[in-house]
Design a protein that fits this description.
InterPro entries: AAA+_ATPase (IPR003593), ABC_SmlMolc_Importer (IPR050093), ABC_transporter-like_ATP-bd (IPR003439), ABC_transporter-like_CS (IPR017871), Mo/tungstate-bd_C_term_dom (IPR008995), P-loop_NTPase (IPR027417), PotA-like (IPR005893), Transp-assoc_OB_typ2 (IPR013611). By secondary structure, this protein is α+β, with helices and mostly antiparallel strands. The chain is 22% helix and 34% strand. The longest helix has 18 residues. The chain binds adenosine-5'-triphosphate. The site of adenosine-5'-triphosphate has 12 residues, from strand 2 and helix 1.
């Protein structure tokens, strides 16, 4: 398959066989009593990467972060940082800092004292501390709030203080556990971009835990999608979205339609699938041959499906049904079409023009069509 690219141009060490991994989880297992929170997991993160661990609540992502920080030790396996085995090294000796969801700012201290706290503990000389704190305040654009206490700040400002405090000691790796969890949607979006700028400016490695797929897609160079203590896929945001390797990942990130069927005919690059009702579709298989009669699915994102009142003359794949639901969302319209075999197909159309040429309404007969390369073939 053609590379779907990375977000940052010229930054893709994971594609370079000579690039040295910076953080390595090597067959790591973590058990709490009988319960396996992380199951024989291996993962590689590169220097200066913005890496996201994405998964539903309880999938083990925080446990992974806590092991990297040194708050938990693996039950089995190794964690390496820059080639060094971290086992037995206490958190404060690791070149890693963790920013917690609650921020944990000291309420009685001013913003500058909060930022200075770790540096003081380290025994840094006072003039150096002052300079570092001033740099940090500038970095997070809080110069005029230096003398305020946390309760005199907004949620977003508190988040920036926490960030300044966690990078003040210049850790090599910053771990962020749901860093934007306490912010409202608008502020979250703004702060995502600020975090990305900051990471680039400081040249640090960021590992962020989130259950918010949009957040991971926006910020990360690569995303590890986790389920039940295992990594399901590690890939760039465009790869995760356009080339999921499993049904789990396809469903977890974004919306998807699954056309199920049996392999009826194979050619070099295409496969003809017969659906349960006999309807046929032709899909590009990326050169991977599936056995005749094998059960497979074709996973197609809603925006790659066209809805029209008439069968498009040039469509390779066109299935007929009835408009079941329409949601007008302003920038786009989402259609649910019930195919004649009962499957509900979700299709979305960008409202690029103010007036739709082919208006459809509830209960209209409609066709959904898509190209053979509109989706990916997955095993059932
Ligand atoms: P969330 O998004 O809710 O924080 P998570 O993916 O970060 O979820 P973890 O905090 O890593 O999940 O927890 C993974 C699993 O391990 C959960 O089922 C949790 O209950 C369990 N677990 C975590 N810490 C402990 C502990 N100290 N003792 C027992 N079980 C634990």
């Amino acid at each position: 398959m053609k590379s779907l690219g990375s977000i940052r141009r010229d930054f893709a060490p994971w594609n370079d066989p000579n690039a040295k991994p910076y953080i390595q989880f090597d067959n790591v297992t973590k058990k709490f009593g009988d319960f396996t929170a992380v199951n024989n997991l291996s993962l590689t993160i590169f220097e200066r990467e913005f890496f996201a661990l994405l998964g539903a609540s309880g999938c083990g992502k925080s446990t992974l972060l806590r092991m990297l920080a040194g708050f938990e030790e693996p039950t089995a396996g190794r964690i390496l940082l820059d080639g060094q085995d971290l086992r037995g090294i206490p958190p404060y000796r690791r070149p890693v800092n963790m920013m917690f969801q609650s921020y944990a700012l000291f309420p009685h201290m001013t913003v500058e004292k909060n930022i200075a706290f770790g540096l003081k503990q380290e025994g840094m000389p006072k003039p150096d501390i002052e300079k570092r704190v001033a740099d940090m305040l500038k970095l997070v654009k809080l110069e005029q709030f230096a003398k305020r206490k946390p309760h005199q700040l907004s949620g977003g400002q508190r988040q920036r203080v926490a960030l300044a405090r966690s990078v003040a000691k210049r850790p090599k790796v910053l771990l962020l556990d749901e860093p934007l969890g306490a912010l409202d949607k608008k502020l979250r979006e703004e702060t995502q971009f600020e975090l990305m700028d900051l990471q680039q400016e400081l040249g640090l490695t960021f590992v962020v835990v989130t259950h918010d797929q949009e957040e991971a897609m926006t910020m990360a160079d690569r995303i590890a999608i986790m389920d039940k203590g295992e990594v399901m896929q590690v890939a760039t945001p465009p790869e995760v979205y356009e080339a999921p390797t499993s049904r789990f990942v396809a469903h977890f990130v974004g919306n998807v339609n699954m056309f199920e069927g049996k392999v009826a005919e194979q050619a070099a690059n295409t496969t003809r699938i017969t659906g349960p009702s006999g309807a046929q579709i032709v899909v590009e298989n990326g050169g991977a041959a599936a056995k005749a009669n094998a059960d497979i699915v074709f996973a197609v994102r809603p925006e790659k499906i066209r809805v029209s009142s008439k069968k498009p003359a040039d469509a390779v794949n066109a299935l007929e049904g009835e408009v079941y639901d329409i949601a007008y969302l302003g920038d786009m319209t989402v259609y649910h079409v019930r195919l004649d075999d009962g499957q509900i197909v979700r299709a979305s159309a960008l409202n690029a023009a103010r007036v739709t040429e082919d208006p459809l309404t509830w209960n209209d007969r409609a066709w959904v069509s898509f190209r053979p390369d509109a989706g990916v073939v997955l095993a059932r």
